[in-house]
Amino acid sequence: MQPLAERHNLVVELIAELNRSGFLAPGIVWQAAVFVLALGLAWLSNHYFKPRLGLDHARWKFGGEGFSRVYFPLSALVLVLIGGITLRTVQPLPHHLLAIAMVLLTAMVNIRVLVYMLKHAFSQAQWVQRWEKYIAGVIWTIYALHVLGILPEVAELLDSISFHLGKSRISVLNILQGLVSVAGTMLVAIWLGRLFETRMMAAKMMDMSVRVVLVKVVQTLLVVFAVMIALPLVGIDLTVLSLFGGALGVGLGFGLQKIASNYVSGFIILIDRSIKIGDLVTIDNRQGVISGITARYVVLKSADGTESLIPNDTLVTSTVVNQSYNDRAVWVKLPVSVAYESDLELVMKLLEATTAGHPRIAPDPAPRAFVEAFAESAVNMSLGFWVRDPENGTLGLRSEINCKIWQAFRENGISIPFNRLDIVHFKPSSRLAGEGNLQGIE
Fold first, then answer.
1. How far apart are CA 340 and CA 337, in angstroms?
2. Cis amide linkage into residue 335, ω under 30° from 0
3. What are the phi and psi torsion angles at 243 (to 5°)?
4. Using one digit for the tens of pLDDT, what is the confidence trace for 279-307?
5. Domain boundary residue, one of 160, 184, 208
6. Is 55 part of any domain?
7. 285 — phi, psi (to 5°)?
């Protein structure tokens, strides 16, 4: 291993330059002035000019947020680079201080870009926030090794640890480079897929099912392209995919046919628009609202908040009751029983009046009361009405209307009969029992 002073070491070279010229040498002073001026201009631009760029506008929300995160270090890096080029025309000498500053600013840009892409690519993952500082530490370590001139020797050490697989030589460095290449391309593909999904879901003029189909197709194509780009970077020939495709076909025929069926069924559901996000459906005795559609399953959210993941194959092969296929409104019926001495016309008017002006009940067709049957001890009636938003549940609405019916019946003297069972107990006294016995004896 080379001594520290013999390596291409920016820190050692800067220290050597300071020893030769001193801290107040014109070259050092000019470099420090350029660096401080670049940081000052970047700070002013970040606080006064960046808000006027409209990065928080809805159209720029996704990409603008990422650009906003790297605005300060990127602008400072550009200003340092311009200052270094300008200073080199006046002083054609090595500028080690500016070189170290550019390395540090580049590391800051890379950290912020990587963390931003991870947060948006895995928006629901909590591990991104937990590992943010570790990711930053790894990047800072790599750049620190570069500044100290140790990175090439670390690469040589990793490359020396190798083994042979057939005729190929594989080292730890090759494995790490392959992992970084695959992870980088996949991360870019997932991030672009999220970006496309955000923009596409904001297109209100297009049907929701069409938007979901386009999003799934584009995300799949991006992942395929990422794999095709990553494999040559690792050193794997794309012709090996033909063998992989044959093995995948055999696997689909034997063990993965159910998974393939779910994926195909998912695209069929999205294309024929038989089920859409927000529909109120009943599937296998489970009733709820479709809150999400993926390539493998649909998310059915029940009224109690529980979510069921139902495979797409089930929706294609079984009967699905879609209560909002053409019309979102659903019919709700409330049974009521009144006594025979009640005024039925008044009861019907009272029942219909309890729904007047309710925001969730449709006025057209208007709510109606019905006389259904004359039972043994009561007249069975019902109140029917159409609910505009069945996805919000009907239990609370039923309870509210029933309370109004109860109050209206009490105010107008309408009674609701109920079955009554009276039991009378007779307990003979001892005197009567004795007389009975005596009479019986007589």
1. 9
2. no
3. -65, -40
4. 888 887 788 888 888 778 888 888 777 88
5. 160
6. yes
7. 65, 15
Sequence-distant (6+) residues with CB within 8 A of 9 are 147, 148, 149
What is the C-alpha to C-alpha distance for residues 408 and 400, in angstroms, rounded to an integer?
13
Residue pair 388/361 in contact by the 8 Å Cβ criterion: yes
Residue 232 inside a domain? The answer is no
Q: How far apart are CA 274 and CA 298, in angstroms?
A: 13
Residue 324 has pLDDT above 90, yes or no: no
Distance CA 331, CA 385 (A): 6
Read off the pTM.
0.49
Cβ(302)–Cβ(288) below 8 Å: yes
Report which secondary-structure segment, H or E, holds 342.
Answer: none
Strand 320-322 and strand 330-338: pairing?
Answer: unpaired
> Encoding tokens for residue 399?
């309870």
Strand partners for 387: 330, 361
Place of tokens 């596409």: 200
Q: Does residue 170 lie in a domain region?
A: no
Q: State the CB neighbour count (10 A cutoff) for residue 216.
A: 19
For 255-258, the CB contacts below 8 A with 24+ separation are 258/313
- The DSSP secondary structure of 72-94, one letter per residue, reads HHHHHHHHHHHHHHHHHHH--S-
Q: Tell me the C-alpha distance between 144 and 139, whole Å.
A: 9
| The two three-digit tokens of residue 281, written as one number | 């459906």
DSSP classification of residue 345? H
What residues make up the domain containing 348?
A: 330-411
Measured distance CA(437)–CA(412) in Å, rounded: 57
**Residue 215 belongs to a domain:** no
Distances (CA, A) of 198 to 66, 192, 208, 211: 14, 10, 13, 10
